[in-house]
Design goal:
By secondary structure, the chain is mainly beta. It is built from no helices and 31 strands.
Length: 372
C-alpha cells in the first residue's frame, strides 16, 4: 500500500441538549447567537446560544407553529419573526420590552384560508430574497403567496392532489418558487402569474422482486444559492436536480442567467436510495453542502458535485451520525458552526440537540508494515 495523507474531515459532537414542554416543530437561526424554536402547543422560544437560556417567547397562539422565518431589522439585535400557526401567518417583533408575547402582540396577522376551508392548515412558509413576499403551503395541497406590502393573498392556479408540505423560493429567479407534496410531485411556479412552469413526479422505487415500497411522498425540500434543488422522500430516497445550477460568479466575469430554471429536468437529476425511512429534513448551508435527517435521526452531510460538461450530478457523503436524544425529528438547521435538530424524545417531550462542528487534522498514513 502506498503512503499518503487522508483528507481532513468534519465531525459534530453534541454541545447541548435542551428539553421543552411541547414537541419542537420548527427551527431557525436569528443571527449567529440566537436560535428560534416553534412548538406544537403554539409557543415560540428564542434561545441565546452562549448561555442556552430562553431570552424571549411567544405563547398561547392556540395551534402548532409549523414554520418560521427570521427577518433582520436595522437597529435591532433580535430578528423579527414571521411564523405559521394554523391558518394564520403572523409577525412578531422580538425586541419588544415584553419577555413573553401573545397573539394580541402580533404586528401583522394574515389569514390565508379559503372560505369554507377554515380547517385547512399551513405547513411551511418561506420569505423571498427581497423580503416582499411570503410563500406558503397547506394541507389541502394549496400553494400561495402573500404580498407583504398589501397583505394580498394569491393562490396558485394549480395545487397538489394531497398535502403540500414544503415550499421554497428559487434564488436569483424573482418570480419563481417550487413546492413539494404527498402526491409525490414537485411543482415549479411563476407566482406572479400563478401558473406552473414545470413538474416532476417521483418514480416508484422498485425492489428486487418488482414490488414497490411506500410511495415517494415528498417530505422535505431545499434549494442551494446556486439553484440546485434537493428533495427527500418517504421511501428514503434523495432527489438532486441540477438543471437549474448556476456556477458562482468568478473573477472572469458574471455568468448570464438562463432564460428558464431547469431544476426539474429529468435529464439533469440524480436519485439515490439513502435511508430506510423517510427523509424529513434537508438544508443547504452557505458552502453548498447538503445536510439531511431521517425521521428517526440519522444525519448525513453531502458534497454535491455538478459536472457541467457531462451534465451530471453526484453526491459525496462527508459525514454521518445519529441523534442521541431526538427520537423523532421534525426540524433541522445548519450554519458554519452547528447542526441543530429538533423534535421529541422517546418519552414524548420536546427536545433540541445542538451539535458543534469540529475539523479533524490531516493524518499521515504510512506504507503497510511501517510503525507510527
Amino acid at each position: 500500500m502506498a503512503s499518503g495523507t487522508s483528507k481532513p474531515g468534519e465531525r459534530y459532537s453534541i454541545q447541548r441538549t435542551l428539553e421543552t414542554p411541547a414537541h419542537v416543530s420548527c427551527l431557525a437561526f436569528g443571527h449567529a447567537g440566537h436560535l428560534f424554536a416553534g412548538a406544537d402547543d403554539g409557543s415560540l422560544r428564542v434561545y441565546d446560544l452562549s448561555s442556552f437560556k430562553v431570552i424571549k417567547a411567544v405563547r398561547g397562539l392556540g395551534e402548532e407553529i409549523s414554520s418560521l422565518v427570521c427577518v433582520k431589522r436595522t437597529g435591532s439585535e433580535l430578528r423579527d419573526v414571521w411564523l405559521a400557526s394554523g391558518r394564520r401567518i403572523m409577525k412578531f417583533q422580538m425586541d419588544s420590552p415584553k419577555m413573553i408575547q401573545t397573539a394580541d402582540d402580533a404586528l401583522s396577522v394574515v389569514d390565508v384560508s379559503d372560505p369554507g376551508q377554515e380547517d385547512d392548515i399551513l405547513n411551511e412558509i418561506a420569505l423571498n430574497a427581497n423580503k416582499t413576499y411570503i410563500a406558503f403551503s397547506m394541507d389541502s395541497g394549496a400553494v400561495g403567496v402573500v404580498d407583504l406590502a398589501t397583505k394580498l393573498v394569491t393562490r396558485m392556479k394549480s395545487k397538489h392532489d394531497s398535502v403540500c408540505g414544503s415550499v421554497k423560493f428559487i434564488p436569483d429567479r424573482p418570480r419563481e418558487l417550487v413546492s413539494g407534496g404527498y402526491d409525490t410531485t414537485l411543482l415549479h411556479f411563476d407566482y406572479h402569474e400563478g401558473k406552473p412552469l414545470s413538474t416532476r413526479k417521483m418514480p416508484l422505487f422498485q425492489v428486487a422482486d418488482g414490488m414497490a415500497l411506500s410511495p415517494p411522498f415528498i417530505m422535505s425540500t431545499t434549494i442551494s444559492s446556486t439553484g440546485i434543488i434537493a428533495a427527500g422522500t418517504a421511501d428514503g430516497r434523495l432527489f438532486i436536480g441540477s438543471g437549474g445550477y448556476k456556477a458562482p460568479q468568478s473573477k472572469s466575469g458574471k455568468k448570464k442567467r438562463s432564460r428558464k430554471w431547469e431544476g426539474l429536468n429529468e435529464n439533469r437529476e440524480y436519485i439515490t436510495k439513502e435511508a430506510e425511512g423517510p427523509i424529513v429534513a434537508l438544508t443547504f448551508d452557505d458552502s453548498g453542502v447538503l445536510t439531511a435527517s431521517t425521521l428517526l435521526g440519522v444525519l448525513s452531510r453531502y458534497e454535491v458535485v455538478v459536472d457541467d460538461d457531462e451534465e451530471s450530478v453526484t453526491t459525496n457523503k462527508i459525514w454521518q451520525g445519529e441523534t442521541q436524544n431526538v427520537k423523532k425529528v421534525n426540524a433541522l438547521v445548519v450554519d458554519e458552526k452547528r447542526v441543530v435538530v429538533g423534535g421529541l424524545t422517546a418519552e414524548g417531550k420536546g427536545v433540541i440537540e445542538i451539535r458543534k462542528r469540529e475539523i479533524d487534522c490531516e493524518i499521515s498514513i504510512p506504507p503497510q508494515g511501517e510503525q507510527i
